[in-house]
């Protein structure tokens, strides 16, 4: 049963959701189509932002610091890397299991970094916590990139064994296998994403810690060179160690584009632009996810066209707007469905990962549009930044975020610990089993199933800030621990919502 748990991610990733700019027109139609009027709720975005970042403490692997606020979690995975005689402790568990998959972890890091770069000034005191969340990942990714010359370590823990267990990370007694890519077993996708994460993070730390920023950037350049020189998908090299859990279903060209795009922004080195031009990465998409990065790269490249007025980037602006036109519900070329309650709906498995990723691109492209007073058309649909601003005042442009925070047919917040009514039986091992502080004895691989997995009781530990997979296509949510496709949180769901929450928290007082 638990070996197929990540089929959610397999499905999810073939459809990595996209995001759209014209928050304005989009949510005008969104509001009228589904609610009949502007959203009347008043979510506390600052509270949600703080909780969304706090969540990452619950996913930490390695030796936990003294300031750990998620007090039911303890140190784990200190021997990670020992099978390869290297130290690979640290990093994050990706979701409700105890495996460290670097592909989604690096994407998580890139998105947290992008959020901090775009919206750090709106985060207030949370910007320090955002940097800490990023650094917990980059410290680990640096080890993976530098521990052994010629290797990039890309994962720790056997997922097929791990998913047969229901135990706390502190109790792990399964083999902690180590996986890597190299010149003979390439992984351009995971390497490109790792390079993107390190490059994006280098800009986050450029002023806060210049020495660390330089280390991140120099390592990013080396990893990107490896990705470009030794072409191949890491799924082909590693097989069942990463598939079907985090296969590279979209191939590796999008990660080469994504990695080069971030290095171009971090370095302004024209060689990365030339490489991007040579890739021919022109695939149309209506997706954006930890697997499919085309839309994210194009939105980021569009910044040069819109904000910097550089005509050499016009092609990417047009591609970004084509993507956006596939998202807007009233666009003639829309390929995106919405539920009766107004939720963007791409896939039945972990749909909110796409909603949060889309929402990030919506707010960010809208920001670029506003800065340049840019408008465009989706055939007969006219999109303006002024419309975006006007609707933001009516809360219409926040409908997707508001839905997640409780403005939905069930009046349920899909962020754990936020609001009065939220998921209590999430698919998460550490949350569902009593803490070491309460029960110091180990439960073992099978020890958590009967007493804690199958019970209808709420989880004893609150994974504050976790955004779960979300409701079904009928806006229903059973709050069932066994229903992992809806009840499991993941780092990449949360990483994408941090930016929009910061945007709204900084734009309005709560």
TrEMBL record:
One Pfam family recorded for the sequence: Glyco_hydro_9
Top-rank taxon: Eukaryota
Biological process according to GO: cellulose catabolic process
Enzyme Commission numbers on file: 3.2.1.4
InterPro entries given in the database record: 6-hairpin_glycosidase_sf, 6hp_glycosidase-like_sf, Glyco_hydro_9, Glyco_hydro_9_Asp/Glu_AS, Glyco_hydro_9_His_AS
First-level EC class: hydrolase
Annotated GO MF terms: cellulase activity
Homology family: Belongs to the glycosyl hydrolase 9 (cellulase E) family.
Protein name per its UniProtKB record: Endoglucanase
Domain Glycoside hydrolase family: 45-500
UniProt entry keywords in alphabetical sequence: Carbohydrate metabolism, Cellulose degradation, Glycosidase, Hydrolase, Polysaccharide degradation
Active-site positions on this chain: 427, 479, 488
Cited Gene3D superfamilies: 1.50.10.10
Organism encoding this protein: Rhododendron griersonianum
Record's catalysed reaction(s): Endohydrolysis of (1->4)-beta-D-glucosidic linkages in cellulose, lichenin and cereal beta-D-glucans
Keyword Methyltransferase: no
Signal sequence, start to end: none
Key word Hydrolase present: yes
